[in-house]
């Protein structure tokens, strides 16, 4: 049975990942720099400087709903890291319908352990692969909600709800898919403090407002809950001209944050207690994309972030910044 005590603030158990620390020494931000970073980077992250808009969301919807037909159409490895699937998860993956798997575009495997009976929210659930993986882990007493904005992806996910319930041997489905935006989870019917775990697989980079995403995540999480997600990060700030490039956006590169920008987004949302559990370099074989990004390199990171009930007192060191703090 999942409870907030199922994970440990002192490191926890990661059956599906290897804990990897950041190679940076001495931290990204000292305490004072965090104050400056929030003032400078929050407008950058939220898109209030005007380079990201509804046009960005439309580009993403078109790419994933109309341009891509299967994962074979992708031009980089950003959305496909098959080696992230651990041996104990592969039998569960084989229980998922082949169409759902073919239209899955994740970049890691943000699946926590010991979640039987939990309520899980999957941000940008797409064709539903992670939702159906999680459905098997939470069992019939648990519940998994997928939120996505793309009609074509939701159609695939909803098509197989009953099929999977029967496949898993459940008396009734324990999943549901809702159309909505991850920047506005209230619009998708998610109330405050109602979710045990939020997961997301290569989706936050597609959002034009990362700050809103993080704010919504920590609003819907119950005290003691956690955000467990994989996403793409850039070695340096992506130039504005590339942030709205439809190909780079769709391939999860144009909207990628640096680790410093990500840390600022989490801090602005009220959480400084997080850690990296996996890191995979992203390969770019497409010559056009390589020319556009130049010397910028990208990696897929899986991250855990925790919502504590009030100030948690002295915290363990954050993996990214090596600083300390509390949520």
Terminal Cα span: 25 Å
The residue ranges in which pLDDT falls below 50 over 5 or more consecutive positions are 5-52, 59-75, 311-327
Helix content: 25-40%
Overall structural domain count: 1
- What amount of the residues lies in strands? 15-25%
Helix/strand structural class? alpha/beta
Query: What CATH architecture label applies?
Result: 3-Layer(aba) Sandwich
CATH fold annotation: Rossmann fold
For the record, the CATH class is Alpha Beta
Outline type: globular
User: What's the tally of helices?
Assistant: 12
CATH superfamily: Vaccinia Virus protein VP39
Structural features, described:
By secondary structure, the chain is of the alpha/beta class. It has one domain: Vaccinia Virus protein VP39 (Rossmann fold), CATH 3.40.50.150. The protein is built from twelve helices and eight strands. Strands 1, 2, 3, 4, 5, 6, 7 and 8 form an eight-stranded mixed β-sheet that branches. Helix 1 crosses helix 11. It is globular, with a radius of gyration of 18 Å. The two termini are 25 Å apart. 46% of the residues are buried. Residues 5-52, 59-75 and 311-327 have low confidence and may be disordered.
Question: In terms of topology, how is this protein built?
Answer:
Blueprint lengths: L30 H16 L7 H14 L22 H5 L3 H5 L16 E5 L5 H10 L4 E6 L2 H9 L1 H8 L6 E5 L15 E7 L8 H11 E14 L5 H4 L2 H5 L6 E2 H10 L5 E8 L5 H7 L4 E9 L21
Parallel strand pairs: 1-2, 1-4, 2-3, 4-5, 5-6
Antiparallel strand pairs: 5-8, 7-8
Helix pairs in contact: 1-11, 8-11
């Amino acid at each position: 049975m999942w409870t907030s005590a199922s994970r440990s603030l002192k490191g926890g158990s990661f059956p599906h990942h290897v804990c990897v620390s950041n190679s940076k020494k001495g931290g990204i931000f000292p305490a004072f720099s965090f104050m400056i970073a929030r003032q400078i980077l929050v407008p950058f992250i939220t898109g209030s400087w005007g380079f990201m808009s509804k046009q960005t969301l439309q580009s993403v919807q078109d790419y994933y709903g109309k341009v891509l037909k299967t994962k074979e159409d992708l031009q980089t490895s950003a959305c496909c890291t098959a080696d992230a699937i651990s041996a104990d998860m592969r039998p569960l993956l084989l229980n998922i319908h082949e169409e759902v798997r073919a239209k899955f575009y994740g970049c890691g495997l943000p699946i926590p352990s010991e979640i039987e009976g939990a309520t899980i929210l999957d941000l940008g659930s797409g064709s539903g692969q992670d939702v159906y993986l999680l459905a098997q882990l939470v069992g019939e007493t648990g519940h998994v909600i997928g939120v996505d904005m793309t009609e074509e992806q939701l159609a695939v996910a909803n098509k197989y709800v009953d099929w999977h319930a029967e496949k898993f041997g459940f008396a009734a489905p324990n999943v549901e898919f809702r159309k909505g935006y991850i920047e506005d989870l209230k619009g998708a019917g998610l109330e405050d403090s109602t979710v045990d775990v939020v997961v997301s697989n290569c989706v936050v980079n597609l959002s034009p407002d990362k700050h809103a995403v993080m704010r919504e995540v920590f609003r819907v999480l119950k005290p003691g809950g956690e955000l467990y997600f994989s996403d793409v990060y850039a070695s340096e700030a992506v130039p504005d001209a590339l942030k709205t490039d439809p190909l780079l956006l769709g391939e999860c590169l144009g909207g990628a944050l640096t680790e410093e920008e990500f840390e600022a987004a989490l801090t602005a949302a009220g959480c400084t207690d997080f850690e990296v559990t996996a890191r995979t370099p992203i390969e770019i074989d497409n010559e056009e994309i390589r020319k556009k990004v130049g010397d910028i390199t990208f990696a897929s990171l899986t991250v855990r972030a925790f919502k504590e009930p009030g100030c948690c007192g002295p915290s363990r060191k954050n993996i990214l910044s090596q600083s300390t703090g509390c949520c």
